[in-house]
């Protein structure tokens, strides 16, 4: 293996691919990235065995080859040197020589030891605005493994749209993005969702095989912005969340920024995981907290409409962070979910029970 490329291009590619690497995995090879030279490019791949990410940069390749090395070591060297170009070559099957003004040799592992990566399977479905759509709802994903089907985002086909939904049992969010084609209903794991959201802002081609192979969980692939991301799907049935979305309720109109500011003030005397009370009083929304140890805080903001309900402070902040301008909160009573609909996205949150 011998290849020469631009240092900046290699650094950029490396920075993206290392996002998929399991830095603390028990298998040393999974902490590494695979570097392969051939076809006029350097191709880098990282994986944690659940998600794999591949990216390439142009290179002048005089000898093909591959090796697996720790990304942290290579990245640190490339950042330390100033040369515009870098040449990678194999000293042997387990050592990579890097020349960029200065020279270093990085010990690695043979390419054949690197895990096999599932190829892209299934017909392409072009999705527009996927990263932005995911950004609107991923705050509602579960963060524990008690219910694995909630540790990701549901992709559900609906005509010319792809419905995206996330829920954790206390809140849910749903939005829709344009799709040219039909994606089989799939639950995409959180890490893959986060990587698509972070690294693939443009149009994305989604590939999902209709029938996974026997004894195989199946995969979904995302191709876009020069990247190929393949993830093992989450098995199981996503909850029938539509039945908990309120169909009506009394509206409360309030400026989102004013409410966010009020919550930030109220947070001074309330831990984020406790209840904040919202109550309409004579053209104002009273935002109040009451903690036996920290004290009480009350903030009033202009509002139109009626409500009397309490929410988890952190959850309400998360919801508001994904809205803009004026919002309309609909509630039926203090024991039923509240809902905010804005820009094609539905946000639902369960209330907390408090003494009024």
Observed structural traits:
356 residues; alpha+beta; DNA Polymerase III, Chain A, domain 2; 3 domains; 21-stranded antiparallel β-sheet; 5-stranded antiparallel β-sheet; 45% strand
Return the domain count. 3
Quaternary class: single chain
Approximately how much helix is present in the residues? 10-25%
Distance between the termini: 72 Å
Question: In CATH terms, what is the architecture of the largest domain?
Answer: Roll
- Quick one: CATH class of the largest domain? Alpha Beta
Q: Look at the structure and name the CATH superfamily of the largest domain.
A: DNA Polymerase III, subunit A, domain 2
Kindly identify the CATH topology of the largest domain: DNA Polymerase III, Chain A, domain 2
Number of separate strands: 26
Which spans of ≥5 residues are poorly predicted at pLDDT below 50?
none
How big a fraction of the residues is strand? 35-45%
User: Which whole number gives the mean pLDDT?
Assistant: 94
Task: Sketch the major β-sheet.
Answer: 21 strands, antiparallel
Explain this structure to me?
This protein has 356 residues and is of the alpha+beta class. It has 3 domains: 2-113, DNA Polymerase III, Chain A, domain 2, CATH 3.10.150; 124-242, Roll (DNA Polymerase III, Chain A, domain 2), CATH 3.10.150.10; 245-349, Roll (DNA Polymerase III, Chain A, domain 2). The chain is built from 6 helices and 26 strands. It has helices at 7-17, 71-80, 130-137, 190-199, 256-266, 313-321; strands at 2-6, 33-38, 41-47, 51-58, 60-63, 65-69, 85-92, 95-100, 102-107, 109-110, 124-128, 152-158, 161-167, 171-180, 186-189, 204-208, 219-224, 227-232, 250-255, 275-281, 284-291, 295-305, 308-312, 326-331, 338-342, 345-349. The chain has a 21-stranded antiparallel sheet that branches. Strands 5-1-7-8-9 form a 5-stranded antiparallel sheet. A hairpin with a 3-residue loop joins strand 13 (161-167) and strand 14. Helix 5 (256-266) packs antiparallel against helix 6 (313-321). The longest helix is centred in the first third of the chain and has 11 residues, at 7-17. The N and C termini lie far apart (72 Å). The mean pLDDT is 94.
